[in-house]
Amino acid sequence: xxxxxxxxxxxxxxxxxxxxxxxxxxxxxxxxxxxxxxxxxxxxxxxxxxxxxxxxxxxxxxxxxxxxxxxxxxxxxxxxxxxxxxxxxxxxxxxxxxxxxxxxxxxxxxxxxxxxxxxxxx
Length: 122
Fold this sequence. Notes:
Blueprint: H1 2-119
């Protein structure tokens, strides 16, 4: 009967050890789950921050595009109009210069012929 009690004591100690091991595993699993949930919460917060920054960036880009459309593009259009007008004026001046040059060349030929005729040269 003494051996039975010893074996029951050993069995009780083994069950107690198993219970302690099970409780340790349960505590470790709970700690691991808490760490995973904490990381998931951090990731969710990070995603929310990224979405907020993305929305603010999108709003900033839209504001810049609207500002460009309202201020820069009309100025560029005006500048292109002035450039076009300037090139047109330069073209007319060049054409006029060529015409005047041709006219002066013709007139100088005629004037030299008149002067030669008047002076009776050649």
